[in-house]
Amino acid sequence: HRLLIWRVVIELRQSNHSVPGFKCGCQHQVMDAEKGLKTKRSASENDHKLDSEEDPWDVPELKDKGKPWSELSTFERIWRVTISWIVKPAFLVGLLYLFVCSLSFLGSAFQLLGGKRAGEAFSNNGIVKNPIAGLMLGILGTVLVQSSSTTTSIIVAMVSSEILDVETAIPIVMGANIGTSVTNTIVSFGHAKERDEFRRAFAGATVHDMFNFLSVLVLLPLELASGYLFHLSKAIVDSLDLNSASGKKQDLLKKITKPLTDKVVKLDKKLINNIATGEGDTSKSLIKVFCDPATRTINETVTVTLNGNETIGSHMVWQGGRLVEKNFTNSFCSSSCLNATWLVQSEESYKTECDFLFYNTSLSDSSVGVILLIMALVILCVCLVLIVKTLHSLLRGRLAFLIKKTINADFPYPFAWLTGYIAILVGCGVTILVQSSSIFTSAITPLVGVGVITLQRTYPLTLGANIGTTVTGILAALASSGSLYNALQIAMCHLFFNISGILIWYPIPKTRTVPIGMAKLLGNTTAKYRWFALFYLLLIFFIIPAILFGLSAAGWYVLLAIAGPVFIVAVAIIVINILQRKRPHWLPKRLQTWEWLPLWMHSLDPMDRLLTSLAAHISALFRCKRQNDVESYSECNGVAEPTEQELDTVVMTTI
After folding, report:
1. pTM of the predicted model over 0.70
2. Residue 137, number of CB atoms within 10 A of its CB
């Protein structure tokens, strides 16, 4: 309506007509209209106030808008059962399959774009000896390869090869724990259209971030001061019988997704490990040329010549129409087979050439990575939208009630406190099965958004996923060809880092609310300012780690001189904000609010207006040829925008 009024005012002005309302003698009508408009505005504000009093974090009631079962005919009942219990669940399973495949494509794209550079960074032993640099490298490396399992496997391989020592690798493992949560943060963007869904989904994704950040904030200084993870893991590994230990990585989920993902691209992931350990060629492409090992049979004829009692050899030869093993010696062969000719069959091992979409193309790794990234994001977004819509249609009525009651319910008193710990075990078990915490947490993020799982239940599930992902490092350590002792020790450090974090931030109710409260704050901010989600993603996972890594590489003095004051100011602001909410009387009157500062220093509103205006101008540039958009029309044709008085007058006259 506002755009239409703008167009009316502009056209009246251009045709030299007076704006209605000034000379029509309808001032009384305008005054009456203003009173009515004020009344409507007041009622609207009251309704908005009532709406705002509702808790947006409450799980929404998904109502069944269809006809009751008792009113359905026989055909309608069969149709509902077929669609609701067969077709839609099968469609949802197919979408989840494509969703997991898109995550695999996303990981492959990031590995093509930055995998070799991540390997080179890991191989720079001088830089990673700085714990801050190691922490940031773990974050950046995991974001680049989109898998904490891959980063952990690289670290385990380097420790096993004694390129890195265990103490140096511990901060990198902590950074990998932070970087793995970037995937489900990206997944939450699929709910950006619906404000409350986006609020819940983004909070459900970032509660993982908050737990990891808080754990590192407490445990990294403790480790640097006491080395407790190093000594604890060393004591555990010393007590194990490593002679009989063996391990083989089992990727159960990948066996299901490989038939599709392997038709698109196959990467030589060992090359990243080899580059990190200093054995790989950085000029070699990550895209495979030769894939599956195979054997072929070679038939040839040999003449057996015996020499004394010496064994000439054991061969599979044809005799009597079948293959038999013959050991050619004088005792075996009589004079009749001396210098005899036999048909010998042998097997030769070789690798077959690959057969997938991006095989043997003229494109570089970076070009394939960009194409694969775009394709992965498109599939990911489409699957997320369809998954959300399918969940909305499925989770209605009695079914929604049963699912939400089962997932979010607590055990009966006095065992209610056990519910969260069972959820931790469930998250751990599922993550071990799928061999990826990113896949598990990304799968439950849409469920949080649509309101099936509460944020309070998501938190323990996420903690369990953190423990489950450490099994990959343990399996990689058991299968390592180098020092099993060192490899298993760093894997144990990863495990007990997560267990220690859980012991700090979960059992005590007061500490449990800290990461959940921080995630809610981020969710509320994102619901109000949609652009904040992208800003958070870039700032936390790319910009800050890159800056701190660069400062750490320059040396301790540079890091402390620049980052130290910033860190102190940030901590002081956080403490003051907490006191302003909890104990404002403890603060000087000046610091009880931030109103004395410029608005841009304590509010995101100026930035929001700037970005909104910038987006509007950019949009107008692409719509200059469309005359039905008044804003772009006035801007492109050099016409001044209507004044507020003109707009109000036209509104009143129209009313």
Report:
1. no
2. 28
